[in-house]
Fold each of these.
Amino acid sequence: MQEMLKVAMPKGRIYKQAFKLFRRAGLPMPEDSGDDSRRLIVTFPEAKMEFILAKPVDVPTYVEYGVADIGVVGKDVLMEENRDVYELLDLGIARCRMSVIAMPDWQQVLNPRVATKYPRVASQYFREKGQQVEVIKLNGSIELAPMIGLADRIVDMVETGQTLRENGLVEYEEIFPITSRLIANRVSYRMKNERIQQLCDALQATLALPEEE
Ligand SMILES: Nc1ncnc2c1ncn2[C@@H]1O[C@H](COP(=O)(O)OP(=O)(O)OP(=O)(O)O)[C@@H](O)[C@H]1O
Ligand SMILES: O=P(O)(O)OC[C@H]1O[C@H](OP(=O)(O)OP(=O)(O)O)[C@H](O)[C@@H]1O
């Protein structure tokens, strides 16, 4: 008999897309993802899966500590959290990019301030460029920082570019592209290898197919 697989799933914009992908991969799950519910643990007995609905940034933590066997998480969070987990598969969903953004009249100054939700990513990026910057951690609406003079530049995500256009900001450089990844706890990956590998193979085969409407 198959054992239960615990999956850390991010609430929010990734959830619906990940759920749809799992269904397309043939997992016996209901059509309704139930994403408007307030339940934090959802069990799918037929699929032998339990979803732990977490804040996106916490997914790698649950997986590293083994309270979830696997998880779905954006590459942005994976880079920032730097947790000890296996990255198994690029799921190709929730596509966007991490970029350096500023006002159009931005000028190079000595020791510029950079605001971001991703201090590790930003620090590493500027360190590799040999530029000394002061990184200021914010938790949302990062685009405000250069508009109101808190920072010279920001490091943030761009998807459609709408937020930038509506606030008169310019994308200067892409740091890396982002998609969601399937990650696994190191011990679970050994102990539940067949199960996890089966899921990976099914997801990979689905990703190779053209997406139906
Ligand atoms: N336009 C986008 N902006 C931000 N993230 C995006 C976008 N498109 C895709 N993503 C991906 O979706 C993930 C989760 O984003 P979401 O906005 O749901 O969560 P969050 O902002 O981290 O969480 P919360 O709103 O609970 O603080 C991101 O980590 C990123 O990988
Ligand atoms: O290029 P776009 O399609 O406009 O998407 C990019 C925006 O989406 C994200 O913000 P989010 O909606 O997560 O809100 P936040 O400011 O709370 O992070 C991100 O931080 C950008 O602000």
Note: The helical segments are 13-24, 59-64, 75-81, 119-128, 144-147, 162-166, 186-191, 193-208.
Amino acid sequence: MSVTVRVPAKVNVQLAVGAARPDGFHDLANVFLAVGLYDEVTATPAAELRITCEGPDAGQVPLDRTNLAARAAIALAGRRGIEPDVHLHIAKDIPVAGGMAGGSADGAAALLACDTLWGTGASREELLEICAELGSDVPFSLVGGAALGVGRGERLTALEVGGTFHWVFAMAGRGLSTPAVFREFDRLAEGRDIPEPVASPDLLAALAKGDADALAATVSNDLQPAALSLFPELADTLAAGRDAGALAALVSGSGPTTAFLTRDAGAAEMVAEALRVSGTCGAVRVAAGPVAGATVL
Ligand SMILES: C[C@](O)(CO)[C@H](O)COP(=O)(O)OP(=O)(O)OC[C@H]1O[C@@H](n2ccc(N)nc2=O)[C@H](O)[C@@H]1O
Ligand SMILES: Nc1ncnc2c1ncn2[C@@H]1O[C@H](COP(=O)(O)OP(=O)(O)OP(=O)(O)O)[C@@H](O)[C@H]1O
């Protein structure tokens, strides 16, 4: 018997970042949108914990106990006093180290898959608690849709979305480390007053209406200057997408994936093609959102 869970990537339509806290984390107002690029995690009983991974970026994924899928299985088994004897196979389509929460997605998917396989019967609250222990983005990977994350980004409130938004994602030739981008944010912020992070009412209204033009006018990412400082070539990708007619162009989360909001599916295909021939990025993908979070298939 095995259990497969499908789990989406995310884009941050707003990422407001506060000053560094004493614990090193930053308070956020993080508006997440789940988009239709998916990993699948399959859990099968095994003699011991084992991780395998397939997909274009599989070579960059750790297969030891640092993998977020492994950490999820260990965390759940630890709470029940059982051994995490499971084979977790990750079919990976979400870019690795791309700012689209790929590792977090696998953590949430593995947790749900193991809970189902082992019949551990964790409540939604317990699953969310374990997700928050695994990482700031992991709870959102479980719930999907659209949500505002505060605190480290792990305390979620679901958001209404009045339509489907069409996106293009441009992958970069190399990854960016999330902690390094937050450190660069701190360096760039030195000597400045950092306001409390708050969600933009206009952005929340644009999401609720499903209005792509209004959303394009309000998207923002406080980590973007830091990501561009560490990876200046991303400015060329953003410009290429804007020139191709994207309504908005921004770095996704901590980057280096860049995200382009378009009016409809046809416009998304046109912007994607222009980015492919621009020579400013790696693979280009089209995806719409919101979509559901981690789901047992
Ligand atoms: C950039 C985002 O992807 C936006 O959604 C997230 O804030 C990052 O979430 P994540 O990858 O799940 O991050 P975590 O595994 O919790 O933390 C990794 C590192 O990122 C930094 N970090 C993360 C979240 C946060 N609110 N403040 C931080 O400063 C810290 O250096 C932390 O050690
Ligand atoms: N299941 C996993 N898939 C991918 N990377 C993983 C996984 N587990 C651990 N990692 C490690 O996490 C690092 C970041 O990968 P990930 O794909 O989660 O980045 P990200 O999409 O930028 O994350 P986020 O958007 O949450 O900041 C990788 O370089 C890898 O070493």
Note: The CA atoms of residues 132 and 154 lie 6 Å apart.
